Amino acid sequence: MTYDNITPAVFLERPNRFIARVEIGGKTGAAHIKNTGRCRELLLPGAEVWLTAPGTPGRKTAYDLVAVRKSGGAIFNVDSQAPNAAVREWLETRGFDRIVPEYRRGGSRIDFYMERGKQAFLMEVKGCTLEKDGVGYFPDAPTERGVKHIEELIRAGEAGFCTALAFVIQTEGVFEVRPNAATDPAFAAAFAAAKKAGVEILFLPCEVAPDSLSVCRGYVPPPGF
User: Fold this and answer.
1) CA 221/CA 201 separation, integer angstroms
2) I need a surface site. Which of 43, 120, 137, 168 has the fewest CB within 10 A?
3) Do 42 and 111 lie in a common domain?
4) Last residue of some domain: 60, 77, 94?
5) Which domain covers residue 19, as residue numbers?
6) In a domain, 168, yes or no
7) Which pLDDT belongs to residue 9?
């Protein structure tokens, strides 16, 4: 997926989880942060960031903050909506007969329902922006919703669906995501239960630029996906 426009800026501070104060062209302004995670190791004063201007009427901020360069040099996409857009583009290359986003099952809304022949698939997508020593970790803040989605995938697998939990790695050079047990032990337990139950765990490496995020063209998924 590619953004229509992109503007470089400098991150100054995050007064709350939705707003960033930034310097744009020598002037101070505000941008909406499209990620409710902590991003503490990314959004540091002086960090190079990139913004988009959606142009939506009535917005309180003209810009969305979508990417940041970590102190080590790597660019991270921090737009929580980008992983689903990137996965949708990737799924369209996988030969599915039908792809339905935001599929309701039980008490949850799963990111994607797919069909290939008579086989039905369910896929939940998680964006990973937390990296330590070349390994991704999820989540960077507790997520009851994430646990609920995993539990629904397990039940769907028992009902005959082919199920997957897909981690979109929103930076380059990282190929594995581990549950962040120190931050969310409940998610770590659900992750282990999903693996035991046969839910496919997909780590989707990405090509990342300030204005784009896409699943690596050379990525080969497990058989069936």
Assistant:
1) 10
2) 120
3) no
4) 77
5) 7-77
6) yes
7) 98
Give the total residue count for the chain: 225
225: pLDDT strictly greater than 90: no
The 10s digit of each residue's pLDDT in 152-187 is: 999 999 999 999 999 999 999 999 999 999 999 999
The total number of structural domains that make up the chain: 2
- How far out from the chain centre does Cα 219 lie? 17
CATH code (residue 25): 2.40.50.580
Instruction: Summarize pLDDT for 36-58 with one digit per residue, the tens.
Output: 888 999 999 999 999 999 877 87
Task: Please state the three-class secondary structure of the chain as a single string.
Answer: CECCCCEEEEEEEEEECCEEEEEECCEEEEEEECCCCCCCCCCCCCCEEEEECCCCCCCCCCEEEEEEECCCCCEEECCCCHHHHHHHHHHCCCCCCEEEEEEEECCEEEEEEEEECCEEEEEEEEEECEEECCEEEECCCCCHHHHHHHHHHHHHHHCCCEEEEEEEECCCCCCCEEECCCCCHHHHHHHHHHHHHCCEEEEECEEEECCEEEECCCCCCCCCC
